[in-house]
Design a protein that fits this description.
- With 426 residues, the chain is α/β, with parallel strands linked by helices.
- The protein has 18 helices and 16 strands.
- Strands 2-1-3-16-6 form a five-stranded mixed sheet. Strands 11-8-12-7-13 form a five-stranded mixed sheet, with helices on both faces.
- It is globular and about 75 Å long.
Length: 426
């Protein structure tokens, strides 16, 4: 069969890469790491963890994939068990050996999983497929210190702009959106009392804020330059926005504010989780776009944010044949066929470039807007709880009007205090 020939060719290439670069699988070394083949002739079971909502689909597709390739169905069975991305990472970090052979996880857990030796990095053809077939954001999310450790599965967690086309005719600038909302007696809603959302301004101006971890998963330091001209521009933009009479702090359920019967929203910042509600309420006036630009002291900046991605990882194995087969599974699970199937069945946003370019995905306004936005967003790394508490408090101060009319020196003092606290956070 054609499928069998293709998979056999991929396996041959992968095995060539395997034995070209022998080494230990400890500490997250690549799939090109060698090992001992069992050679026992026993059928081995491969365990795959997937979120409950796609467990049945994943099992069905893997069963068909394996059945069409008798060379492998005679050696392996595959069992898919329900395990959410967050829980999967926790389980792997608790006991790598007892964890699944192939598992999905959120990209902010990558550094911890690498440190725990829970990831066998893809090499050879597998790595080429990853870097050549997926968008840059998802590849970056799967990469640590220049090395690819996992397979991109989705590119669909982030925030962008929803707007009422009868209110906002030009969503390109923040200032314009606020003015258009004002003219219609509507409001612009965004959550600035959250470190997940207010980075949209800091990252837009080129400021950095991320944490470094040791091999035990402990914070060793923070890179943050908010106390700078870049941070000042971001803070001034947030202060200006919060001071506008037609800005409203996000309530956490803003989609309902598009209700044509008394709704007060002209535009909101949210994600794909609100797509169905917003579309139903706005009908023909439904609009979705990347976040706007904002201007401070004559310079315009494109709003950014965190990019959220789901990844698939492979657990290191001592049996090189099993390791290669696990990478074949991960490659298939994150390839064009499976990303299309998950989009069609569950609405998951693809990272695969061909699937993103398909008519079906392009006609999904929310996913198209998010894909446009994610090109400006770095993947979210791991942040300690203290970071979220600090940035929430800072955003709350902005929203309360504490910094309205403040001098640049006073704003820089506030940024210096925030930066210092962020660097002390553990």
């Amino acid at each position: 069969m054609k499928t069998k020939k293709i998979l056999s060719s991929v396996l041959a290439l992968a095995m060539a890469a395997t034995f070209a670069g022998c080494g230990s699988t400890e500490g997250g070394d690549s799939a090109s790491a060698g090992g001992n083949s069992s050679g026992s002739g026993e059928v081995q079971n491969i365990t795959v963890w997937a979120p409950e909502e796609i467990t049945a689909l994943t099992q069905e597709k893997l069963d068909a994939w394996l059945a069409s390739n008798s060379d492998y169905s005679s050696k392996y069975t595959i069992t898919v068990s329900a395990m959410g991305e967050g829980e999967a990472a926790t389980q792997m970090l608790t006991d790598v050996e007892a964890g699944a052979d192939v598992y999905g996880f959120a990209q902010d857990q990558l550094a911890r999983l690498v440190a725990a030796g829970a990831l066998s990095a893809p090499g050879g053809t597998f790595e080429t497929n990853i870097t050549g077939n997926n968008d840059a954001g998802s590849v970056g999310a799967a990469t640590l210190d220049g090395k690819v450790y996992a397979y991109p599965e989705t590119s669909d967690n982030g925030f962008f702009l929803y707007y009422d086309k009868s209110v906002v005719t030009d969503p390109s600038t923040l200032e314009g959106i606020l003015d258009q909302c004002a003219a219609a007696g509507k409001n612009f809603y965004m959550d600035i009392q959250s470190g997940w959302y207010n980075v949209a301004f800091f990252f837009a101006t080129g400021a950095d804020c991320y944490y470094e971890y040791d091999t035990e998963g402990n914070v060793t330091g923070a890179i943050c330059d908010y106390n700078s001209d870049k941070g000042l521009a971001a803070l001034k933009a947030m202060v200006n926005m919060a001071s506008h009479s037609n800005f409203s702090q996000s309530t956490g359920s803003d989609a309902a504010l598009f209700d044509p019967n008394g709704g007060t929203a002209g535009a909101i910042v949210s994600g794909t989780w609100d797509s169905a509600t917003v579309s139903d309420l706005l009908g023909d006036n439904f609009g979705a776009a990347k976040l706007p630009t904002f201007t401070v002291d004559g310079t315009s900046y494109q709003m950014s944010g965190f990019g959220g991605f789901k990844l698939v990882g492979v657990k290191p194995q001592t049996d090189s044949d099993k390791l290669t087969f696990c990478h074949l599974i991960a490659d298939y699970l994150t390839g064009e066929e499976m990303q299309t199937a998950r989009f069609e069945a569950n609405g998951w946003g693809p990272s695969n470039l061909k699937v993103q370019a398909s008519d079906a995905v392009q006609s999904n306004a929310a996913l198209a807007a998010l894909a446009d936005q994610l090109q400006y967003c770095p993947g979210q790394g791991q942040y300690p709880n203290a970071y979220w508490t600090l940035t929430e408090a800072f955003g709350t101060d902005i929203n309360s009007g504490m910094y309205a009319g403040a001098s640049d020196d006073d704003l820089l003092k506030a940024l210096a205090d925030l930066e210092g606290a962020i660097k002390e956070a553990k």
